[in-house]
Design brief:
The protein is an alpha/beta fold. The chain has 9 helices and 7 strands; from the N terminus they run αβαβαβαβαβαβαααβ.
C-alpha cells in the first residue's frame, strides 16, 4: 500500500496531536506509561501524575522528551482526597488540558466476606472518586472552549464480576456508568468522553494472577489471541480516542482484550 498517496496527509491529520496537551494519571509505569508515550509520539505535550513520580528523570519524562515533546509532572496520591482536590484546582487554574487520561488505579484481592472497609474506600477513591474530580475540573474548561477528549481506563470488570475483587469491580463498574453519563451530557458541548477496557495486561496489578499457575493457565486458555497483553497494546486505542479520528465517538467503552469478551 502506498503510504504517500493523495489521502495520506488527511489520514495522518486524523491522528495528529500536535499542539495538544494531555494529562495522564498513573503515568509512571505500566499502562499509563504506554499511554503517555503514545500520545507524545503523536505530538502531544504531557503532564504526568503518579503517586511515586520522580521529580526529574522518570522513565515517562525521558520517553516524552525523546519524542520531542515537553513534560511536567505532579506527585500526587490519588487516594488522598485533599491532594486530589488541590491538584484539580491547580490544573483548572494554570493549565490548558486538551486530553485527560484518567488511568491511575489500584486493586485489592480478598474474599468479599473479609474485604477490609478501609481498603474498599481506598480502591473506590483511586479508581472512581479521583477520576470524577479530575474530569469535573478539566471538563469545565473543555466545555468553555467547546473541545476536549476525556479517556478513562475501565476494565473487563466493568462488564464482569471477577473473583476476590469486590471493591475493584464496583469501582470499574461505576466508572463505566460515569463514562456514559458524562458522554451523554458533554457530547453536545464538544467534549468526547470514552473509555478503554484493557484485558489481561502484564502489569503489576496482574502479577499475582500471572504467578498463579492455575489462574494464569485458565486465563490464557480463554484469550483467543493466546497471550497476555502488553501495555503497548493500548497505544493505538489511546491515540484514536484522543485524536480527531474519534470526534463522533461518545460514551463508548472499547475493549482491548485479545478477544476475551467475545469468547
Amino acid at each position: 500500500m502506498n503510504s504517500t498517496g493523495p489521502n495520506s496527509g488527511q489520514a495522518q491529520a486524523m491522528f495528529d496531536l500536535s499542539g495538544k496537551v494531555a494529562l495522564v494519571t498513573g503515568a509512571r509505569r505500566g499502562i499509563g506509561l504506554a499511554m503517555a508515550t503514545a500520545l507524545a509520539n503523536a505530538g502531544a505535550d504531557i503532564i504526568g501524575v503518579s503517586a511515586q513520580l520522580e521529580a526529574t528523570g522518570s522513565e515517562v519524562q525521558q520517553r516524552v522528551e525523546a519524542a520531542g515533546r515537553s513534560f511536567s509532572g505532579f506527585q500526587v496520591d490519588l487516594a488522598d482526597r485533599a491532594a486530589v482536590t488541590e491538584l484539580a484546582a491547580s490544573i483548572a487554574e494554570s493549565s490548558r488540558i486538551d486530553i485527560l487520561v484518567n488511568n491511575a488505579g489500584t486493586i485489592a484481592r480478598s474474599p468479599a466476606a473479609e474485604h477490609d472497609i478501609a481498603t474498599w474506600d481506598t480502591v473506590l477513591d483511586v479508581n472512581l472518586r479521583a477520576p470524577f474530580v479530575l474530569a469535573q475540573a478539566v471538563g469545565r474548561s473543555m466545555i468553555e472552549r467547546g473541545y476536549g477528549k476525556i479517556i478513562f481506563t475501565a476494565s473487563l470488570l466493568s462488564f464482569q464480576g471477577g473473583i476476590l475483587v469486590p471493591s475493584y469491580t464496583s469501582a470499574k463498574s461505576g466508572l463505566a456508568g460515569l463514562v456514559k453519563a458524562l458522554g451523554n451530557e458533554w457530547a453536545p458541548l464538544g467534549v468526547n468522553v470514552n473509555a478503554i477496557a484493557p484485558g489481561y495486561i502484564a502489569t503489576d496489578n496482574t502479577e499475582a494472577l500471572r504467578d498463579d499457575p492455575q489462574r494464569s493457565s485458565a486465563i490464557l486458555a480463554r484469550i483467543p489471541a493466546g497471550r497476555w497483553g502488553d501495555a503497548t497494546d493500548l497505544a493505538g486505542a489511546t491515540v484514536f480516542l484522543a485524536a480527531p479520528a474519534s470526534d463522533y465517538v461518545c460514551g463508548a467503552i472499547i475493549p482491548v482484550d485479545g478477544g476475551w469478551l467475545a469468547r
